[in-house]
Write a structure and sequence with these properties.
The protein is α/β, with parallel strands linked by helices and 190 residues long. 29% of the residues lie in helices and 23% in strands.
Length: 190
């Protein structure tokens, strides 16, 4: 039996002002150059942007893979851990105050569900609280022609990958947290 290739998928969305922006970084632990993709969605906000980043990242994989998904969204994490199976069995509805209502962002959750038929995905959340971090956040915007100087800090929490950090983020939450601090430190040195 052939082992599945392993990937790390970092996803993030800017849930602030117009227009909505999403971004993902997809990398193999043994490769130097990650795939970084981001885009602007003019009329999309909040949780939908978070899901869109995850969907696009999973759909960028061209063969079945093992994926460590790292996101700052508890909405994504909780949906993947607890919601998908229940929603699928209830015809994409869930109970809210005694009534069955359609799942919010059903189309994107269904795309994630389809991707999970091919990929083994483990979802972790991370949070960088800048008030408690000694290192300034890296200021590297999504490469998009419409971005301006004022947009530089919006995607600051996404890591900039370097070869010597390939294996930092693996299995435990503690390693993810320490790895992200190191990634921030390295990203600041660019």
């Amino acid at each position: 039996m052939v082992a599945l290739p392993e990937y790390e998928l970092f996803s993030q969305a800017d849930v602030g002002d117009e227009p909505g922006r999403w971004r993902f970084v997809l990398r193999k632990p043994d490769e130097q150059s990650p795939l970084e993709v981001g885009d602007v969605e003019p009329d999309v906000h909040g949780e939908r942007l978070e899901l869109l980043a995850v969907v696009r990242g999973l759909e960028a994989l061209d063969r079945p893979s093992r994926v460590l998904l790292v996101t700052s969204s508890t909405y994504v994490r909780e949906g993947m851990r607890y919601g998908l199976e229940e929603w699928r069995s209830n015809d994409w509805q869930w109970e809210s105050y005694g009534q069955m209502v359609p799942v919010k962002n059903r189309d994107l959750w269904q795309r994630i569900d389809r991707a999970l038929q091919f990929h083994q995905v483990e979802c972790r959340t991370w949070r960088v609280d800048q008030a408690h971090v000694d290192i300034p956040a890296p200021h590297r915007p999504v490469e998009h022609p419409e971005l301006t100087q004022s947009d530089e800090g919006r995607f600051a929490a996404l890591p900039r990958i370097k070869p010597r950090l390939r294996r930092l983020i693996r299995t435990s939450y503690k390693r993810i947290a320490s790895g992200l601090k190191e990634l921030q430190r390295v990203a600041c040195s660019y």
